[in-house]
């Protein structure tokens, strides 16, 4: 997979390193020439320039890439890069970093963003996930806000314990994706029985999320 990353700061660099380790081809675009001299990113291709400029993206031959990640510390830049990637180069998948949670509402398909990743929101979710048992925690917003990934840790006194997954009436537009039990993930089946401490991951929609929350809450009373 070919991935272009705008912004070689701590976030962009970390993403680039992980992608290279997983054998993906990565191009980093950054304004600062000294970034390209970093020894920890030798396997990455570089282009020094402003990723908001159409000429720079044309020089990068962006149309040949599968994914564009806008990872700068400036939300305006991330929005412009995503919009150009979609509208001018037809990039199939764009990921935009949200620095200020107040700007999250703009990171949608109107600006060419397929997936918005808000570091503050994600960190908050991870903190909640670490301390909140018995509550639904939103981990990630996918597909321009139309889909959520959420997590629920089953309390040890929950009425869900001992029930088969297939015998529970889950809301429409909600899919159980995985269960983590004793630090081991597995794909759930209708015959699997829920145990206390299970971490259950769902894909749901903004409309279905409150219904899912109510289903789980009623089962934990």
UniProtKB/TrEMBL annotation:
Per the database record, which ranges form the RCK N-terminal domain? Answer: 1-117
* TM region(s), chain numbering: none
Q: Where is the RCK C-terminal domain positioned along the sequence?
A: 137-218
SUPFAM superfamilies assigned to the protein according to its UniProt record, in alphabetical order:
NAD(P)-binding Rossmann-fold domains, TrkA C-terminal domain-like
Q: Which Pfam families match?
A: TrkA_C, TrkA_N
Transport recorded as keyword: yes
Q: Which InterPro entries match?
A: K_uptake_TrkA, NAD(P)-bd_dom_sf, RCK_C, RCK_C_sf, RCK_N, Trk_Ktr_HKT_K-transport
What keywords tag this UniProt record? Ion transport, NAD, Potassium, Potassium transport, Transport
Q: Please report the name of this protein according to its UniProt entry.
A: Trk system potassium uptake protein TrkA
> What organism does this protein naturally occur in?
Glutamicibacter nicotianae
Instruction: Show the taxonomic lineage.
Output: Bacteria, Bacillati, Actinomycetota, Actinomycetes, Micrococcales
